Amino acid sequence: MAEELEHALQQVKAAGYKMTPQRKLILDYLINHETHPTAEMIYQDLQQQDEQISLATVYNTLEMLLGTQLVLAIDSDQDGKRHYDYFGHPHYHAICTNCGRIVDGENFDFSQLPNTAANETGYLITGYEATVKGLCPECQRKLENQK
Amino acid sequence: MAEELEHALQQVKAAGYKMTPQRKLILDYLINHETHPTAEMIYQDLQQQDEQISLATVYNTLEMLLGTQLVLAIDSDQDGKRHYDYFGHPHYHAICTNCGRIVDGENFDFSQLPNTAANETGYLITGYEATVKGLCPECQRKLENQK
DNA sequence: TTGCTTGCAAAAGGTTTGCATTAAG
DNA sequence: CTTAATGCAAACCTTTTGCAAGCAA
User: How far is A103 from chain B (nearest CA, A)?
Assistant: First the structure.
C-alpha cells in the first residue's frame, strides 16, 4: 500500500475512528486525485469502479476527514459546490473565475500565519486555507480569441 | 456621506452598474458592520430599519459587489452559510470551529501572494482570500471550564 | 457483544431563477 | 425611451438527517 495512505489511515485510527472499507476507498481516492473533487464526483467515480458505497457515506467520511485536518474543503463560488483536497503538504489554491478550475501552488510561505494569527486574534489555530482568484491560462486564451 | 462609501459608490458606477437606493443601503451596511453578515442578516436588519428591500435584491447586489472585488465572500463550514465582508484593506479571517465567530487579522503580509501565484500558476490574479481556523478565546474558556 | 457506521430515502434550507413591474440613465 | 434592476414566489440542488440493518473492535 502506498506510504501516504498508510500514514493517513494511521491518523484516522489515532483520532479514534473505526476503519471501514468505504473510508479506505475515499482516503485512497483523495490521495491519488489532484482534481479537487466534490462529494458527488467521488461518489460517481467509486461507483464506476464497481465499489459499493452510498452518497451519504461519502459525505459522512469527508466530514470526519475534515475534522482530522487530513482533508481540506474548498467552497467554490464558481459552481456552488464544496471541493475536497487531501492536504499532504502546505499549499494554496488558485480558482479560475471563468471555468472554476482549481490548481495548487506552493511557492508561498504560510508557515508564520498560524503564529501570527494566534498572537493577533487569540484564537487557538488548528488550520488554514488560502485561495487566489483569477483567470486560468486556458481561459485567458479563450477570452482573448473572442475579441 | 462617509468617505469610504463615496469611494465604493464610485467603483460601482465605474464598473458600469446603475446606482439604486438598495445598492447604496447594502454597501453602506457592509462598510459599517464588521460582523461578516450573511445575506439573510443584511435583509433582516435593513427591513427593521423600515427599508423596503427584497431578499433577492440583497443576493443580486452581493453577487454584483463580489464581481467588483469591493466585497469578499467567506463560506463558513460552521453554519453552512455564506458571509460577506467589505474588503477595504488587506486582511485575513479567523473562524472559530466551535461557535463560528469570524474576526479579522491584518498582521500578515499577503502582498506578494498575487505575484507569486501569477508566476507559479499562470493565472491572471484578481483577488485572494485567506482563512485560519481554530478556537476563539471565549470558546477556549468555555471548553476549559467544562472539564 | 457494543455502539459506531452504512445506506436509503426523505427533508432541509440557503441560493437561484422567471417574470412582470419599476426606475435609473 | 431603453434597458437594467427590483420584488415576489416558486424551484433548485447540494447537503443533512432519521432510522433500521450491518460490521469493526
Answer: 8
Q: Which nucleotide is nearest to A56 if distance is taken from CA to C1'? A: C7
Element (H, E) at B82: strand B82-86
Does at least one atom of strand C sit less than 7 Å from the CB of B77?
A: no
Same domain, A44 and A109: no
Nearest-angstrom CA–CA distance, B59 and A86: 32
Closest CA of chain A from B17, distance in Å: 20
- The model carries a pTM of 0.93
Among candidate residues B40, B58, B88, the one where a domain is terminated = B88
Neighbours of A31 (CB within 10 A): 18
Residues B8 and B31 in one domain: yes
Domains of chain A: total: 2
Q: Cβ(A22)–Cβ(A56) under 8 Å?
A: no
Q: How does pLDDT run across A52-109, given as a tens digit for each residue?
A: 899 999 999 999 999 999 999 999 988 999 999 999 999 999 999 999 999 999 999 9
**What contacts B24, CB < 8 A, 6 or more positions away?**
B5, B9
> Residue A82's domain spans which residues?
1-88
> Are residue A132 and residue A72 in the same domain, yes or no?
no
CA closest to A66 among chain B residues: B77
Residues B5 and B58 in one domain: yes
Question: Between A3-14 and A21-31, two packed helices, what is the crossing angle to 10 degrees?
Answer: 130
CATH number where A109 lies? 3.30.1490.190
| CA-based nearest residue to B61, from B29, B36, B101, B89 | B29
